[in-house]
Amino acid sequence: HLSKHSSTQVAAGAQHSMALTSHGDVYTWGSSWVGQLGHGFQEDEPYPRRVDTLIGQRVVAIFAGFESSAAITDEGHVWMWGSNSLNQLGQSRFLLPFPMFCHPRVMLLHFAM
Hints:
It is built from no helices and 8 strands. By secondary structure, the protein is mainly beta.
């Protein structure tokens, strides 16, 4: 549960919110009609719920777009999910976080949606 952890970052999209804990866990809540919460289904979530697909990843930054979400790990890997209406994910819509492949010599430090 999010209340048991300290948050280091929060982000908000059009109808969803995200929080990153000091342990690197990502929590999302709000509207999920295009999968922007990353829970694998399109049902709204009224309370913060951990994005289980990211367990084992040390997330250091989160980003909320209009209807999509992203996370960056401590190794510079990018995970994205939600709507791809403007091709912002580079592929089709994802209900679960999907790792985006970057060049092995590139470490992503910041991201904008």
